[in-house]
C-alpha cells in the first residue's frame, strides 16, 4: 500500500461510500426504541438500559437510540436535522410498509408526490420526522434531470396523494410507473415559500396550523 497523500487545499475530499447510521438522543428511551423497532421492522444488534443499536439490513446499526440524562424536549424551531429518509425499491413496498405501520398504530403525517419521489412522512414519539419514499424515476440520472427542470423549480414541494387511493389503484392493476409519475404542476404556496428559503415549509406549517412542521424535501 502506498502512502496517503491528500488532494491538497483545493482538491476534493474523498467522499464516503455510504451513510452509515443516525443516533437519536431521547428522554423517553423505551418508547422510542419500541417505536423504531416497529417502524423499521428492526431488531437490536446490541441493547442495554441506555443504548439500543437497531438493524434491519446488512448494516449492524442504521439507527441507534440513546438515553442521555438531561435531554430536553425537541424544539422544532432549532437548527439541525429536519428528517431522516428511508427508501423502498417499489411503490408496492412503500404502501405495504404504510399498511403494516398502520396495523401497529403508526399513522402518517403527510403523503406527497415530490416529483422525484413518492413520499410518506411520519413523526416519532419525540417529534423527529421520518420520510419513507420510493424513487419515481428508473435512474438517478433521470431524477437529476427532472430536479434541474423548470417543472421542479415551479413546484419543488409536490402534490399530496392518498395512500389508500394508491393501494386501491394498484390492486386494480394500475401501473406503478404511471401512479408515481403524476403531473405535479404548480402548487399555490410553492412560489411564495421559495421566498422564505429553507425555512419556508416550516413557516407554511406554522401559519396554516398543520400539526406537522419541519422542512420537507
Ligand atoms: Fe427528504
Automatic annotation (TrEMBL):
<comment type="similarity">
    <text>Belongs to the glyoxalase I family.</text>
</comment>
<dbReference type="InterPro" id="IPR029068">
    <property type="entry name" value="Glyas_Bleomycin-R_OHBP_Dase"/>
</dbReference>
<dbReference type="Pfam" id="PF00903">
    <property type="entry name" value="Glyoxalase"/>
</dbReference>
<dbReference type="InterPro" id="IPR037523">
    <property type="entry name" value="VOC_core"/>
</dbReference>
<dbReference type="InterPro" id="IPR050383">
    <property type="entry name" value="GlyoxalaseI/FosfomycinResist"/>
</dbReference>
<dbReference type="InterPro" id="IPR004360">
    <property type="entry name" value="Glyas_Fos-R_dOase_dom"/>
</dbReference>
<feature type="domain" description="VOC">
    <location>
        <begin position="18"/>
        <end position="135"/>
    </location>
</feature>
<protein>
    <recommendedName>
        <fullName>VOC domain-containing protein</fullName>
    </recommendedName>
</protein>
